[in-house]
Amino acid sequence: MGVAVSKIALLTHCQALTQACNYCEGETLVNVLDCKKDMGLWHGVLTSVMNRIHTITVPYAVMKACPMSWVQRVHIHKGKATVSYSFCIENCIDTSTHLHPKLHT
């Protein structure tokens, strides 16, 4: 069985995520969450569509084979936001740019 969410609740939740994450139109988001449930659905699909955000989804199978693949996607697509199970990823990107200046050229 599933959960029913009203249109108003959906829009309100997406607007709250937009304000909390400071999303802007045209940004690029790298999503490593499952797009069919939980935060992957809210951030990776619904909020992205509402804000016209370009979303690159990295499937779990790819992440399992190559854990750094999300970093490659951020670099290739000039990503400004990432969505993952750990909210430390943004800090990892900031730290890695200081250690590896070629990452953000």
UniProtKB/TrEMBL annotation:
PROSITE patterns: PROKAR_LIPOPROTEIN. Keywords: Signal. It comes from the Eukaryota. Residues 1-20 form the signal peptide. PANTHER family: DISCO-INTERACTING PROTEIN 2 DIP2 -RELATED (PTHR22754), DISCO-INTERACTING PROTEIN 2 HOMOLOG B (PTHR22754:SF38). This is Secreted protein. It comes from Hucho hucho (huchen).
